[in-house]
Design goal:
8 helices; five-stranded antiparallel β-sheet; five-stranded mixed β-sheet; about 350 residues; binds flavin-adenine dinucleotide
């Protein structure tokens, strides 16, 4: 979705070089293809655009929402009554292993760029849609890697301090699908650039069991081979944006994989009617385990291709809620509530939504 042409709307205000438009439909800016209009909408291509937009919104007492690629976003049907600021800063600077990447660059294109240069560290994150600036927000991760492992620094506008700041990895407080930016200080920082430290001529990561199986009994694959295999695996699950594929009108995984104390596994197994050692799990810190939310959904009665009017589940991955055509946000939220209640009833676990809800 990054870098797409703006849908037509008329210019209302011109602030410095910034066009601020009115009543702009947000659905085309999201991978779900759902949601009402932004009252005001502007595209920032420089850091100066960001400060101008903030000043403009402050004078009018308007809220600001920062939009990247719209791939982790569910916009409510009534839209957003403030200013949506779409981050479209571009450029990649690279000095040996350090890459400074502007927030509006496409994440997947950056992965390709790094892989082509023989830089290891993000090859398993191929095929994830959205912008580079969106990746630190929920500490994007897949197939055994997460961006926290390679992010060295995040440059952002701090709306509280009214200045640009640089946050190191520790200050970003990365955890599973979490960071400072989506927990402790939501809406405070507008990311403009991310610095990654990659590994020149490094080996590809094959930590993830599914990837290991793809390359079993083979010599060590190239970074490009691993990235291509990840994309193939993602495509098979409808987790790659492919034009015309109805399974990817989604925000990817809709629920986070819950992390529970290891001693609760027996209770989960009993509720599922299986032995404790057949509950799929990944080890987590502090004597805890991470459970696949998709497994919980399936045992609570939801299957791939499940339909509830215009909302449904992907035919290739239980964890992706999809827009089956003309779904509204209300349709998606109804299905979400239905699933959360069923999993809670069966397992006593409250699933958490992964995408951001706007409006
Ligand atoms: C098919 C599909 C597969 C996916 N697979 C994965 C996966 O494997 N792993 C994974 O972790 N995610 C996955 N996602 C989710 C999504 O792609 C990522 O979370 C992505 O990083 C979101 O970036 P974005 O630019 O699209 O953010 P948006 O959706 O535009 O915004 C999401 C949040 O980030 C904030 N934000 C965005 N840009 C900035 C910025 N510059 N500064 C401050 N805040 C900002 C927004 O305000 C909002 O709160 C998938 C999504 C889809 C549709």
């Amino acid at each position: 979705m990054c870098g797409r042409r703006l849908p037509f709307s008329y210019t209302l205000y011109i602030v410095a070089a910034l066009d601020i438009r009115e009543s702009v439909p947000l659905a085309p800016y999201t991978t779900f293809g759902i949601g009402g209009p932004a009252r005001y909408f502007a595209v920032a291509i420089t850091e100066a655009d960001i400060t101008a937009a903030i000043g403009w919104a402050r004078e009018r007492n308007l809220q600001i929402f920062v939009l990247g690629g719209g791939s982790n976003l569910l916009v409510r049907d009534a839209g957003f009554p403030g200013l949506v600021l779409h981050i479209a800063l571009h450029g990649i600077r690279h000095q040996s292993a350090l890459f400074d990447v502007a927030a509006g660059e496409s994440w997947d294109d950056f992965v390709d760029h790094a892989v082509a240069l023989g830089m290891a560290g993000i090859e398993c994150l191929a095929g994830i849609p959205g912008s580079v600036g969106g990746t630190p927000v929920q500490n994007v991760g897949a197939y055994g890697q997460e961006v926290a492992q390679t992010i060295e620094l995040v440059r952002a506008f701090d709306r509280e301090a009214g200045a640009f700041v640089e946050l190191n990895r520790a200050q970003c407080r990365f955890r599973y699908r979490e960071s400072l930016f989506n927990t402790d200080e939501p809406n405070r920082y507008i990311v403009t650039r991310v610095r990654f430290r990659l590994y020149p001529n490094g080996d590809p990561s094959l930590r993830y069991a599914e990837l290991q199986r793809c390359f079993a009994n083979q010599p060590l694959p190239s970074l490009a081979a691993v990235a291509a295999t990840v994309r193939e695996l993602r495509c098979g699950k409808g987790m790659l944006l492919v034009p015309g594929d109805p399974d990817c009108r989604s925000a990817g995984s809709f629920f986070k994989n819950p992390i529970i104390p290891a001693q609760d596994l027996q209770r989960i197994a009993a509720a599922a009617g299986v032995a404790s050692d057949s509950v799929p799990q990944w080890p987590a810190a502090d004597h805890r385990v991470k459970l696949p939310a998709a497994w919980l959904l399936e045992r609570a009665g939801f299957h791939k291709g499940f339909a509830d009017g215009a909302a449904g589940l992907s035919s290739r991955h239980t964890l992706a809620l999809i827009n089956r055509g003309e779904a509204t946000c209300a349709d998606i939220e109804r299905l979400q509530d239905h699933i959360v209640a069923a999993v809670q009833q069966r397992f006593g676990l409250k699933l958490e939504r992964e995408p951001v809800l706007l409006g």
